[in-house]
Amino acid sequence: MRQASAITAHQETTFLADNFRGYDPYDGLNTTRFPGTLLKYGKIPRLVLIHLNKRLIYNIRPLFGIERGLNAKALGLLIAGTLRLGQRSSLNEQIPELLRLLESTLSPAARHRAWGYYFDWQSRVFFLPADTPSVVVTSFVCAALMDLYEHNGDVSLLKNVRESIEFFLQELQHTTDENGLCLSYSPQDSSLIYNASALGLETIARYQQLSGENIAAAEPVLSQGLQFLLAEQNEDGSWYYGKQLIQRFIDNYHTAYILESLENIRRYYQDSPELTASIQRGTRFYLAEMFTEDMAPKYFKNAIFPIESHACGAAVKALCRLSEHHGSELFEAALQIADWGMKHLYLPKKGYFVYQQRKYWTNRVNYFRWCQAWMYIGLSTLINYGKKYGYSIY
């Protein structure tokens, strides 16, 4: 626990020095120089350019004219982590600046308050231009704003979240089938991505619980959305990433996302035996199938590598949250995962977490959102919960 405290303190110094900006594994389409500019058009060239920057063990972004950017999701994770650390955090005085930066990254493409990524993004299924608002980024920002509201009681924060709820209800596509309803990733696509929809439902549920407002249009979204997530759970307790055939894979960090979202939906919306049983089946699968014997986070159920600090941070955060209702042994698992990550993925001389550990080599590129922000929120959550379970950071 002492090591976690020392690392988060060092991370905060780095965040400040970098003005809360950094590179991202998926920022390759921000290239401004030849020959990268030739690859920005068309699905296959875009995927090539993104994965070229993402997979190389050396950061070639300066050669392509790619600059460090402001990532709204990372800013949200930093606010949430700072609040978890309390007076131990050196970033408390920076929260007004972090809020200002969030305001500067609001998506101009949304009618309501929403956020996206600062780079064009091509997936295997769809293409999203820079600043396209998404349910995922907006949900993480709203979570940070609600954390801050619980900390200082500023009702303007809740009012801002309320407007983002309208983005979920009015701008995202709502796809229904025999299993229920799924929120789209963005207004521009109709993809059925389970963890993304779960994040949106969690945000709506938490807002209603905090504000005391029951939004009429939200009730069918919450009830049918939860029904959809429960129906789509596999027999072994897992969820695929999405419903399309190409999305039928099970990875570590998206499993962590959906488990934590369902736990929050249980707390804020519907504490039912069916939902509790679903979370517990999912958690049993997660711990049994998605980690090695020494608690390194596997990438897929049937593939250990690459091991990512992103998965490590997301696992620690989710398991700490789950431990409150589903057993303190989940906190012990989070502690083991964090210890493994600090031992194997942290570079103490450089002061940051590596991107990926592969079987025969390590990708040491420093990614702000993907690695540093996620390990910061993971370790700050671990420290916060450690106090509840009697651990000392000193």
Short description:
With 394 residues, the chain is mainly α. It is built from 13 helices and nine strands.
SSE topology:
Blueprint lengths: L1 H16 L25 H13 L16 H14 L9 H10 L16 E2 L4 E2 L6 H18 L2 H17 L2 E4 L2 E4 L10 H18 L6 H14 L20 H17 L4 H17 L17 E2 H18 L2 H16 L1 E2 L4 E2 L2 E2 L4 E2 L4 H21 L6
Helix pairs in contact: 1-13, 3-4, 3-5, 3-13, 5-6, 5-7, 6-7, 7-8, 7-9, 9-10, 9-11, 11-12, 11-13, 12-13
Categorize the overall geometry.
globular
Low-confidence blocks of residues: none
Q: How much helix, percentage-wise, in residues?
A: 40-55%
* Class from secondary-structure proportions: mainly alpha
Structure notes:
- The chain is mainly alpha-helical and 394 residues long.
- It has helices spanning 2-17, 43-55, 72-85, 95-104, 135-152, 155-171, 194-211, 218-231, 252-268, 273-289, 309-326, 329-344, 368-388, and strands spanning 121-122, 127-128, 174-177, 180-183, 307-308, 346-347, 352-353, 356-357, 362-363.
- The chain has a 3-stranded antiparallel beta sheet. Strands 1-2 form a two-stranded antiparallel ribbon.
